[in-house]
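Thread: "does anyone have the structure for this chain?"

Original post by V.I.:
We have the sequence but no experimental structure in hand. Need at least a predicted one for the grant figures.
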Amino acid sequence: MNTIGRTYKTTIFGTSHGPAVGCVVHGCPGGIVIMPGKIQAQLDRRRPGWSDVSTPRKEKDKLIILSGLLDNKTTGAPIAAIVENKNVDSEAYDVFKTVPRPGHADYTASIKYGPHHDHRGGGMFSGRLTIPLVISGSIAMQVLEKEGIHVAAHSLRIGRVSAKSQPPVPNIERIARKSDVGCADPSIAKLMKAEILDAKREGDSVGGIIECIATGLPVGVGEPFFDSVESVLSHLLFSIPAVKAVEFGAGFRVAEMRGSENNDQFVIRNGKVVTETNNSGGILGGITNGMPVVVRVAVKPTPSISKPQRSVNLKDMKETELQITGRHDPCIVPRAVPVVESVVAMGLLDLMLTGGLI
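Reply from O.Q.:
Generated one for you, tokens below.
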């Protein structure tokens, strides 16, 4: 339930309002230089309360590494790390034990786990559990970068505002990672921010699309069928709580194409086999073909909104009205960008280690 990976394995633990959240990472080879500061930088991008487009809940999200690193090198032992939950306010969540919030896991969790479920802040279903994904993914990104592989994501769409697809990865690393909405185009970023703030003023929320690009991958990463690159990455991407759809390359647009349009034709450039287009998203038969791997995820609007909503009281089985208070994101897309980068890196590293490519 809380462990994923074949060779590069990650176990996550914790709850939103518990003492801490964290992970244990198995399978990272020894002797690799890992800079904790780079992990912290990724956590800071995900951290709440640093922008007016995120929740007012302020957390430092300071990385605490418990084992697996010595003098900034992996020891070969499991890497264990936590981030403490410092700023919690559980009182506002008491009503949700009996009146579930629309769009949240309150109802399904109460039925599956009964009265023992930790409802505070969403418990184990909270976005706080993406912190251990970022920790593990940041380690994976550093390992991949030593192989010349870069993973970068950006906000492609927020609400009705869209940016250009597949900007150069250096632009994403240089611009999007410093943007408070995660966009690689500063002019579009302003419009995205306005879209979020409009929803916030109305007591509502907005969703969007995150695009992730991985470059530098060799030909041959992935396995047919159940361990295809798409299968592994989709499994990880759907573990991010707000993700509702995943597509690779041209994605759902292939349904309206002819084969002559969709097929990426092979050519030779600088002595290498490449394709003229990349509708396949860098993957053929579940295996990388040397082109950039391109994946997009649709992120739903944050379900916690201040508008009145209909729900039910599970104690007396009557319909009721619910108005949510507390501290919530008007849009989770910007903070989910580093999470998408992280899980893509986790999946690619696992496939490469399993395939003996590292």
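V.I.: this helps a lot. The first helix runs from residue 36 to 46.
O.Q.: and The mean pLDDT is 92.
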